[in-house]
Amino acid sequence: MGKLSEQEFQAYLKQIRELTEGTFDKMQKDIEVTNVFPEEFYQLGIKNNLYRCSLPTEYGGWGLSELEILKVQEEFSRGPGGMRMHLHYAMDLNWRPLYDFGSKELKAELMPGFQDRSVFTCWAVTEETGGTGADIKTTAVKDGDDYIINGEKFLISHTDCCNYAYITVLTDPNADKDHRLSTFMVPCATPGYEVTPMPHMMGCRGSGHTGLKFTNMRVNKKYLLGKEGDGLHISIHSLSVSRVHIAASNLGMAQRMLDISLKRAHDRITFGKPIIERQAIRMKIADMATHIHALRTMVYDFAKDYELDPHGEYIEEKAAMCKLFSIWVTKVCGDEMLEIFGGIGYFEDCEYGPTERLYRDSRAMWLEEGTPTVQRITISRQTIKHGGHLEYLD
């Protein structure tokens, strides 16, 4: 199937919302206990083209535009956070580093497999003893046509369901900080690749997180993305795009928080009238709606820039702004939602929607693809570079 008409795309958005707020929400009740996605979840993702739709058409995808991808993500982010975490990754960071930086041969071999999840990856950058940038300590030493990788990664998502791992490693400790690192796409079946367990998370249940350990893991040079020394650039570019996908996820959650808050405010009667008629509640609704509108405008502006030039001058800066502001939006909307609901919103199985789960799940967004502090560092660096100026492209 090629690109969708506008009518087909709107129907698809409706389909994904109904799937999310229907089947996925019901399925999540067991997942909150087991912390494991059933096979049915993955099959529904395939059946509803959630692994396929964002892929370029030459690899069996629908070739959705960046704006269309973000709109799809907004819809499924109204549902369970763990499923959102899996699907938002599937539609972006799962395949994009290979597409942007892989060799023609590696792309021809692996890109078609993303459409039906026969190829699925994890993004292994973070380390417990360092950050996610130039201080990475996992090493790769050249040995003929191979590299020998040793080290550990920490807090890595999707390790329970992937068969390849993007691994960023130190290849030249003597190079400048911008060229010390390299990135490989490594088959998880490679000898020396080990998964190490971690405790369950507060929210986003079902999305597997573990550590990784590499012991004398021999990886052929064909799995190197870009060239040696490109690892930091690959990480920065790939995470810049993914940060906006996190922002779109926050947008979907915040919008659902507002939607169910409006329903509750219409129904809740105190002193003889619905609380939606009270000025204090209307102030909360106004704040929620304003934050959501501002975030949607920022996300859509980024999509326009990205479609014109994925490596544009302001991509990194605007992406970090979207991620940073989106965190605040879900905080504001989550807090206001609980106040509008009162005590009933703190309980499971609320008749209006998953208020307490939305509140828990949204907190993961503070950490995914970099904390607020990391976003502010990125923004300030780029803002100083650009003299406080941002361009808005037509």
Describe this protein's structure.
This protein is α+β, with helices and mostly antiparallel strands. It has three domains: 6-116, Acyl-CoA dehydrogenase/oxidase, N-terminal domain (Butyryl-Coa Dehydrogenase, subunit A, domain 1); 121-227, Butyryl-CoA Dehydrogenase, subunit A, domain 2 (Beta Barrel); 232-385, Up-down Bundle (Butyryl-CoA Dehydrogenase, subunit A, domain 3). It contains eleven helices and ten strands. It has helices at 6-34, 39-47, 66-76, 81-90, 96-101, 104-110, 231-267, 279-308, 315-341, 355-362, 372-385; strands at residues 121-124, 139-143, 146-157, 164-170, 181-187, 193-196, 209-220, 224-225, 269-270, 273-274. A four-stranded mixed beta sheet has the order 1-4-5-8. Strand 2 and strand 3 (146-157) form a beta hairpin. The chain is globular, with a radius of gyration of 21 Å. The two termini are 29 Å apart.
